[in-house]
Design a protein that fits this description.
Layout (H helix, E strand, L loop, with lengths): L1 H24 L4 H16 L12 H28 L2 H8 L2 H12 L4 E2 L2 H22 L5 H25 L4 H16 L2 H4 L12 H29 L1 H5 L5 H12 L6 H20 E2 L1
Antiparallel strand pairs: 1-2
Helix pairs in contact: 1-3, 1-10, 1-12, 2-3, 2-8, 2-10, 3-7, 3-8, 4-7, 4-12, 5-7, 6-13, 7-10, 8-10
Length: 288
């Protein structure tokens, strides 16, 4: 059941990049999108969250701050900035390699993971696929390389988030963890507005296009999906669950074709295939 839930979450997350692109094209900045998205999610989660305020120790509370940064502020702001600079397909392809980051951390810290040689072959193929996607973006589509580099930062962030989420999931309720992540994600994003004040008029948020996309990002993709993702990570493991992320590009390609008309070249398809095959092979070679 939890594998099916993980697949459903991936389908939703693959479409979020399209909604983000639509909001950016409408005038919202990446940091503004993140704050609105997480404010909605944070308000919603209080209806089902335990009334517990603090973690059991200072160490655990600091871990929640780390989850808020890697799964919240730094992850989404870099992802949103990347979407504004390059194609959503590129961002999706590159971000899908984040399971390898989770694996790398797990291999260094957890002795219970079984490793096979196919892990290294898969990792190499996935990294090669990222290189193909990035090269295609610059050489063929003439995109800003900064967008793809920001997508790499996004990849690292979510890989770290998935790994440490597992350790917290053994101690705390998934809804409590998600609520703390939303809070610290918002808190660590606020300093940005000291240097770059909010600029989008609030009245502009009331249009149907803006409102529907924000509600989808905040209530469905953030509130609903992050709660369920925390449960999945706790039930089937950080490495296994994070490897479902390699399917995100398939969802993104479909939605970007329907709503953004973004082109897909042969080289981009080859890069996507290398990434998916590589991460799948790595998943075979590494078990929780």
């Amino acid at each position: 059941m939890y594998h099916i839930i993980a697949l459903a979450i991936i389908a939703v997350w693959g479409s979020t990049l399209v909604s983000t692109k639509i909001l950016i094209q409408a005038g919202l900045r990446p940091d503004e999108i993140f704050v609105l998205r997480f404010l909605l999610a944070y308000a919603a989660i209080w209806f089902i969250s335990p009334r517990k305020i603090w973690s059991d120790s200072i160490k655990d509370e600091l871990m929640m701050v780390l989850l808020g940064i890697t799964g919240g502020s730094l992850y989404f702001i870099t992802e949103n900035m990347a979407v504004g600079l390059t194609y959503v397909n590129n961002v999706s392809f590159i971000a899908s390699v984040s399971p390898l980051v989770t694996m790398a951390i797990a291999l260094c810290t957890y002795k219970g993971i079984k490793i096979r040689k196919i892990l290294f072959v898969g990792s190499l193929l996935a990294v090669l696929g990222v290189g193909v996607v990035v090269f295609n973006g610059q050489a063929v589509l003439h995109l800003n390389p900064l967008g793809d580099l920001l997508a790499v930062a996004t990849m690292v962030c979510f890989g770290v988030y998935c790994y440490f989420l597992k350790s917290m999931g053994d101690k705390y309720d998934p809804v409590f963890i998600t609520r703390k992540m939303f809070f610290y994600g918002l808190l660590t994003a606020l300093p940005i507005f000291i240097f770059q004040p909010w600029s989008f008029p609030l009245s502009g948020l009331l249009s149907a296009k803006m409102l529907l996309n924000l509600l989808f990002l905040g209530l469905v993709a953030s509130f609903g999906c992050f709660v369920m993702w925390s449960i999945c990570v706790n039930k089937i493991g950080a490495v296994t669950s994070s490897n479902y992320l390699y399917l995100i590009p398939l969802s993104t390609v479909v939605f970007s074709a329907l709503f953004l008309n973004e082109p897909m070249t042969l080289i981009a398809w080859i890069g996507c295939a290398l990434i998916m095959v590589g991460v799948y092979m790595a998943n075979i070679g590494c078990r929780d």
